[in-house]
Amino acid sequence: MTVQLITDGGSDLSRQMCKDWQVKVIPLYIHLDNEQIKSDDVSVIDFAEKTSRSKSFPTTSAAGPFEYYKVFEKVPREKAIIHFSVSDGVSSAYKHAVMAKNMLLEKQPDRNIEIINTESASSGIILLMQETINKITDGLDFHQLLHFIEDRVKHLRTVFILKTLDNLIRSGRLDRIKGTVAKTLNVKLLLQASDEGKIEVLEKVRGTKKATKRFVEKIGEYLSETANQKLVITHAQAKERLDNIVTSIKDKYQFNKIITAEMGPLLSIHAGSEAIVMAFFSDEKRRA
Hints:
This is DegV family protein. Keywords: Lipid-binding. The protein has 288 residues and is of the alpha/beta class. The protein contains eleven helices and 13 strands. It has helices spanning 15-21, 44-52, 65-74, 93-107, 123-138, 142-155, 166-170, 176-184, 208-222, 239-252, 265-271; strands at 3-8, 24-26, 29-32, 35-38, 59-61, 80-85, 113-117, 156-161, 187-193, 199-206, 230-235, 257-262, 276-281. Strands 10-9-8-13-11-12 form a six-stranded mixed β-sheet, sandwiched between helices. It has a four-stranded parallel β-sheet with strand order 2-1-6-7, with helices on both faces. Strands 4-3-5 form a three-stranded antiparallel β-sheet, covered by helices on one side. It is globular and about 55 Å long. 39% of the residues are buried.
């Protein structure tokens, strides 16, 4: 492959995906009880056990610019680099990766390297990388790939349905007033990645069953034809719930491929257990 794809710990790529796509993953960090844990050093189950024994709420942070630089610098010079970063709206990871890119270009100004602000995470990054792999196979060069990815990011829809808003509120990713109102009135919130890649309320629905139904219906509101499309859906310790939703999606739509994966501990901290996140490309651009 003439292009080296790289991502970070917010992507939730499985080990098999990393192997098949030859992707390098730069871990992000989880902090709990004065311990710093790399996102790829602990499983979701083991981390859940750690948090159950702790009175503290875990926090997350990006790798430092030099950590990104060290990974970029090791890629052979003849290979272009495309790094898919978790959204700039929820993490400093993108800014640190850009700093590392600039460090690399100072020493090796002839390098082809680009940092992609995916404006998403988890399922959204998996979908973008899957489509990029296909285009590399089709023979697109570095600059053609960047043009393609830029367009796909504008069409990318990332929609969330969570069992509870507690973790999202505690981590500061969702307004506390909205979360309190939702919990008080038994209102379930459908969430999405906004134009700035932040998490915003998409729709308020009363009751879990109706919220799940609306979650599936949202696909049809954004996408008129699914037969030639892919959908990626990830879950946080919610395999049974995921399977039920996938069944509903298959009954209603004709996606040519549905990719499923489990969230890593980093995203699970914010989304909470039994969260489901799906990503697909909508007909209309999400932003200009």
